[in-house]
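User: Run a structure prediction on this.
Assistant: Running it now.
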Amino acid sequence: MRKTAMTVQDSSNHVSRASFEPVDQTEQILERAVLRLNANILGIVLGIITGLGIFIATNFLILKGGEVVGPHLALLGNFFPFYRVTFLGSIIGFGYGLLVGYVAGFIIASIYNLVVKFKSK
């Protein structure tokens, strides 16, 4: 961001000091437009979306049925203990999805906020 220096005089102390003012107002508007993300809110939203995705996918496969129900989705059991392609497993998967989504959203928002903080300096 381009800035110009202007001298400000303090009448009580007769001291001059430099003050930097933005030259271009569009740059100032853009700085205000880039908002910081609330990491908790993004984490909760991403967690709910991930949890619901696992819950819906598991229950869809249960309702679809077949000889072998959801062999690919059953691989989540390697990462999420106690997860199975069953109704109880869909509830457990929702919990794990909520947790993993929250952590991912929190990390994404935190990194984004750091980038915005360093960019604004």
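The mean pLDDT is 83.
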